[in-house]
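haha ok so turns out i had the wrong file open the whole time. this is the CORRECT one, sorry everyone. sequence first:
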Amino acid sequence: MINQETIHFWTQGIADIVVATDPLEAKATYDRVYQGSFYHGRSRTLVQALSAVHMALYYLAWKQMGVTVYKLLGSARTQHIRPYVTLYPGDIYDDSVQTILAETRRQAERAVDQGLRAVKVPVLFGAENDPGGVSDRTIVGFIEDCREMLDEIAPDLVLAADFGYCWWDWQAAAWRLKRLEDYDVYFAEAPLRHDDLRGTRGWRLY
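then structure:
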C-alpha cells in the first residue's frame, strides 16, 4: 500500500508524497497523503498504512529535534495520568462465567496490590465472541458481577470494559450499553466493528 505507484491526482503513491518532506510538518504531510489517496479507500489496510506513516514522521521529527513526542503533539495537557491494566483471564471464555470471574478476581487483587486503581475487563464469550450466542442477561450480569467484585476488593476502583467488536450494528450496541449505565463503566472499548460508529453518542468508545 505504501509503495503503490502514482496513477493520477487522487491515487498517488504514499511514498511519492512523503519522501523528502519535512518530518516537522507531519500534520500537513498526513493531510496531503489523505487527500492524495482518495481512491485507495478509507478503511482497513489504508488506515493502517496511514497510521504507520504518521508515526514514522513523528519519530523522525523527534530524532531531528531531540524532544519528546508529547511536546511535538502540543505539550502536556495534565500533570497526572491514571494507568489501568487489562484483566485478561486467558482463553477460557468457553468455560462458565464463574470460572472467568474467579480468574478475573485473582488478577484484580494482584493489580490492586501493585498500586493500580483502574482495570479493564474483556467481555468475550464463546470462541467466536458471537453476541447472538450470548444473552443480554449474561453480558449485563457479568458486568454487574465484576462491579460488585471490584467494590469488594477496593473502594473506588475504575471499571472499563472491552467488548471485542461484539456487535455488528450501532442500535444493538447502544441498547445494550444503556443497560450497563448503573454499573459505572468508565468506557466501553470496541463495541462495534470499525466501520459503524454512528448512534453511540453518550458513551466513550475506544
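The longest strand covers residues 118-122.
again sry for the mixup
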